[in-house]
Amino acid sequence: MKTVYLALAATALCVAGSAQAASTSYNSTPADGWFYGNGNDYSPANTAVLTTDDNDQLYLRFHKTFAVAPASSGNVYSFALGTDPMSFDWGIDNNAGASITALLTLKNLGTGQTFSYDPFFVGNDNSNGAGSSQNSFRLNWAPIGFNPGVNDTYRVTLDVSGLAGGPQSLSIDAKLGAGVPEPATWAMMIGGFGFVGGALRSRRRATVRFA
User: Fold this and answer.
1) What are phi and psi of 5, to 5 degrees?
2) What does each of the 211 residues of the chain score in pLDDT, given as a tens digit?
3) Using H for helix, E for strand and C for coil, what is the string for 121-179?
4) How far is the C-alpha of 1 from the C-alpha of 12, rounded, in Å?
5) Which domains does the chain have, with CATH numbers?
6) Nearest Cα to 93, choosing from 123, 121, 52, 39?
7) 119-150 CB burial, b ≥16 within 10 A, e <16
8) Is-contact 171 160, C-beta < 8 A?
């Protein structure tokens, strides 16, 4: 019986491994370039590109609408306060021609507001006829409280199921101004404030006054 459980566990690990086999490169260019619309296939493409072992690709980038995308730091694109309107480009290269489904999710990290939509819904994608689909979307089209004048961070996540190598997910962030600190950063800040407060209290207790 133990042998059966071990075999099942090994099989599950193999399946999970094949679904997760992918590498992500930043400030890169998708294999099929950017063919949607006009003037979008510029260089450098500054795109986050996830590539599977089967050479399928998911890719995303943020930019000011009608402007080229800036280089990112990892998956984070930084913009000055007041940058508006803002867009992201998305793309999927389905080389195997598998029957896939996809979901794009936008999140305001400052408020927690989210909005999701199907990128394959009629009119939402442009295809090159060879398995690749692309398009763009503006942050102010989604009900997530986008405000270009406030320090905040916005995240877009592309989830795709049905690819030859299993489901894949790719996320990028757009940081306006100082952005929104990650939870670990908040913890460090709070801890730092506590340390400073404790030091000040100790210093006050150690003060000696002479008449």
Assistant:
1) -60, -40
2) 444 444 444 444 444 444 557 999 999 999 999 999 999 999 999 999 999 999 999 999 999 999 999 999 999 999 999 999 999 999 999 988 889 999 999 999 999 999 999 999 877 788 876 789 999 999 999 999 999 999 999 999 999 999 998 999 999 999 999 887 555 444 444 454 454 455 444 444 444 444 3
3) CCCCCEECCCCEEEEEEEHHHCCCCCCCCCCEEEEEEEEEECCCCCCEEEEEEEEECCC
4) 17
5) 21-201 (2.60.40.10)
6) 52
7) bbeeeebeeeeebbbbbbbebeebebbbbbee
8) no
C-alpha distances (whole Å) from 151 to each of 78, 182, 198 are 11, 13, 30
- pTM for the predicted model, two decimal places: 0.77
- Tokens standing for residue 184: 């670990």
